[in-house]
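Something for you to look into today, if you have time. Could you write out one complete protein record for me, on any chain you like? The space below this message is yours for that.
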Amino acid sequence: MLIGREASLLRQPVGQSRLRRINSLAVIEAIRTEPLTIPAIAQVAGLSKTAADTVVGDLVALGWVTSVEPLSPTGAGRPANRYRFNAGAAVVAGIDIGQHTTRVELADLNGEVQAARSVTVSVTDPPAAVLADAVKAVDQLLDAQGRERADVWAMGVSIPGVVYQDVITRGLDVWEGLNVRAAFASSFECPVAVENDSNLAAFAEAWKGSAAEAASMVYVHCGNRTGAGVVLNNAVVRGANGAAGEIGALPQMGWEHAQQYLHDVELTDGRKVSREGVFDAATAGDPLAVAAVDRFAEVIAIGIAALVLTVDPEIVVVGGGNVQAGDTFLDPLRRHVERLCTVRPAPPIVPSALKDRASITGAGGLAATSVMEQLYASALGGKTLSSASTPPWTW
């Protein structure tokens, strides 16, 4: 988008047609999050009121901008019209394929969720059946909104495995080698982006979660399994083979077996508890439970510290089921990470704001962002701004 491109834009010759396209993008960006009046649009977009009025009129005709009810008058004179980005011109689909549940959401072009549906699955279900159920769920959501498949302008798919060029290279055995994008291609004409679930959770937390103010962050999913995603300079780091952040695959890190410290923990009263019971007992002060949580946190801290010392992030966001224990888990985790970060202060370690919605939010957000990137690339690449009724693959 325009962020970070100002210098390159200024170095390029700007004719009248290019200037109009740039101004159109500036206006769209100005009203993405809230409706504004023409004078306010002009101020935010850096245009004259006359130019802003002309651009808004063009965008209204194309369907990218709609007018909204004026604010109630607070003084003399007629209240000014306001305009907003028409995020409802189309929808995007986010799909989160988990080991037990497939979640599907439709969102507008700003990533705001419009409808959602969940489907129970099993690790023994063949991939074709799981993907067919996901397509069926999308169709059901579209039918409920009176929309068709052609109204879906992009799809983002979250997968619990390593993804390289839309192919699962590591994950559940029966899924390895599957091209997920190709599997959806027979049902949807729109672009389909497939990504690792921790990467999408990292994207979501940086987009509208706990790391929204940071340009660099590490996301760690800590639940029944542990995984990580990295954002640097406002971009998700995928690596040469899609495996960036997969340090948990190293047995030496201990992440694959860390959960054993939370299983069958004997408390001071003789009871044996697991995970939630351990955290509850630790919160209540049981010394054996506190020791078990500390051992678990110490193992998880090794991988977090390795990532911190590698990419030097501003913040670490921890998601997954174990974060429900709050500071009972996070405090010892912070202490161990601080001890291991010998060459720099440990960054803030905070819980996920999106909780169990991180990966599905990332899937829908990736799809919505990809549409806007296509719009910007098309306009900046010399093409006339397309109508909002025209799907991106025809731009």
Q: What stands out?
A: The chain has eleven helices and 17 strands. The two ends are 17 Å apart (CA to CA). The chain has three domains: 6-85, 90-202+357-382, 211-353. Residues 1-14 have pLDDT under 50 and may be disordered.
